[in-house]
Write a structure and sequence with these properties.
The chain has 439 residues and is an alpha+beta fold. It has two domains: 109 residues, Rieske Iron-sulfur Protein, CATH 2.102.10.10; 267 residues, Naphthalene 1,2-dioxygenase Alpha Subunit, Chain A, domain 1 (Alpha-Beta Complex). The chain has 16 helices and 23 strands. The strands form five sheets. Strands 13, 14, 15, 16, 17, 18, 19, 20, 22 and 23 form a ten-stranded antiparallel beta sheet that branches. It has a four-stranded antiparallel beta sheet with strand order 6-5-4-7, with no helix packed on it. A three-stranded antiparallel beta sheet has the order 1-2-21. Helix 9 packs across helix 10 and helix 12 packs across helix 13. The chain starts with a helix and ends with a helix. The relative contact order is 0.15. Bound molecules: FE2/S2 (inorganic) cluster and fe (ii) ion.
């Protein structure tokens, strides 16, 4: 029993370090699913994934298999992927269209898109005088307690109480605002498939890496250096190299000391923003054409404001990592204490020229895809971290870098000047973790 082994979970988290069991104990993992992932707002998907009535997408929230579905009235519901009759999974495919209603493949109970029971074969003769029928809510598919969307990004919470979505997101809303505002039409559209990677490591290891500004110039140095070499050669030959080389060479040209110049901003609920570093505002003809479409849509001043938003990465704890200037996101779905699924998605800016989409696709393929060395180098470290933590070689994970130098201001914690490689984001995530786990 967890209670006997670890009577007080709060003792596992100190301001600058965390006990290793937090990453390796299966019972702590179960408790995390109950107290964190099955309580808070979890990203389900984008509205454009289910454009037509009956369109659905399956999604995992904590341990619960769920369905995000569009109704005939346009509304999106999030339902448990389970038939209330004998428990059959309602949709076995990852996504599809249910038609005018859901029909269980076992005994043909049917349900409206919002989960309400529609019919049971020979309902009158079969269930007259019983407690089963349309009046009994237990005969309908169960819904997520709360569903809300923000600028087209759909979230669900399996707990009926808690902060509203916008309150929960707080400053991290900038991830979605920045992404959508960069579209001349003010909206993005999902590219309807994603990479799925199963990592053999605890879910928190992935999240902690997202805003770990110390690791890129170590882990991704070899890739960055090779890209930089080629970039220089092309530049010498032709005068300029394609932007895609810069996406990789930045890992070498932004050296370890430069990372300290950036800043992380840490917020309640474990969210965190890393300011920008890639300077993706080149002067190539594609970018110039794109900026013209923005000016047409928003005017010069607003366009400048939009393009001046200087963030590289927004982490929305406990399950989402967004790179808005490049229209990417990664959703984290914990599968077990040492197994984590990440879904890697990218988006089109509505109304932007095709070349701007190709830029997003290039970043998706070169940096975030499982086929790139960048991703592979990270995955190897995640796996090795988990292996090390599962050993008796030490009891603590240290988050002490620049500890004590954080600046608390207006409810957020900023890293001080020249402390960009601070482990403040990890401290902030574990602070939120401890608060959730105490609840
Ligand atoms: S299990 Fe779904 S209708 Fe019987
Ligand atoms: Fe990395």
């Amino acid at each position: 029993m967890l209670q006997e082994r670890i009577p007080d979970l709060s003792k596992c988290v100190e301001p600058d370090r965390v006990r290793r069991e937090v990453y390796t104990d299966p019972e702590i993992f179960e408790l995390e699913m109950q107290r964190i992932h099955e309580q808070v707002w979890i990203y389900c998907g984008h509205e454009s994934q289910v454009p037509k009535a009956g369109d659905y997408y399956t999604v995992q929230i904590g341990r619960q298999p769920m369905l995000m579905v569009r109704g005939a009235d346009g509304r999106i519901s999030v339902l448990y992927n389970r038939c209330p009759h004998r428990g059959n999974m309602m949709c076995g495919d990852r996504h599809g269209n249910a038609g005018e209603f859901f029909r269980c493949s076992y005994h043909a109970w049917t349900f409206q898109h919002d989960g309400t029971l529609r019919s049971i074969p020979m309902m009158e003769s079969g269930y007259a005088g019983t407690r089963y029928g349309r009046d009994n809510p237990d005969c309908s598919m169960k819904r997520a307690a709360r569903v809300e969307s923000y600028r087209g990004f759909v979230f669900a919470s399996l707990a009926k109480d808690g902060p509203a979505l916008t309150e929960f997101l707080g400053a991290s809303r900038v991830a979605f605002d920045d992404m959508c505002d960069r579209a001349p039409a003010g909206q993005v559209e999902i590219v309807p498939n994603c990479f799925r990677v199963i990592q053999h490591s605890n879910w928190k290891i992935f999240l902690e890496n997202q805003l770990d500004a110390l690791h890129p110039s170590v882990v991704h140095q070899s890739t960055g250096r090779a890209a930089h070499e080629v970039e220089k050669q092309i530049e010498k030959r032709t005068g300029s190299a394609p932007l895609s080389y810069h996406m990789l060479s930045a890992f070498a040209t932004v050296t370890i000391d430069k990372w300290d110049n950036f800043q992380t901003l840490n917020y309640p609920y474990g969210h965190c923003i890393l300011t920008g570093y890639m300077g993706l505002r080149p002067k190539d003809p594609d970018t110039v054409a794109y900026e013209k479409t923005l000016i047409k849509a928003y005017g010069k001043q607003r366009t400048e404001e939009i393009l001046a938003v200087n963030i590289h990465h927004v982490l929305i704890y406990p399950g989402l990592s967004v790179q808005s200037p490049l229209q990417q996101l990664r959703a984290v779905r914990p599968l077990g204490v040492d197994r984590t699924l990440t879904e890697i998605w990218h988006f089109r800016l509505k109304g932007a020229p095709e070349a701007i989409y190709r830029r997003s696709l290039a970043y998706y393929n070169l940096v975030n895809s499982p086929a790139t060395l960048i991703n592979a180098d990270d995955l190897e470290n995640f796996w090795k971290c988990h292996q090390g933590l599962a050993s008796d070689g030490g009891d603590w994970v240290s988050f002490g870098r620049h500890h004590g130098r954080d600046i608390e201001k207006d409810g957020r914690v900023e890293t001080a000047a020249n402390c960009g490689t601070s482990e403040a984001p990890m401290r902030n995530q574990m602070k939120a973790w401890a608060q959730y786990m105490r609840a």
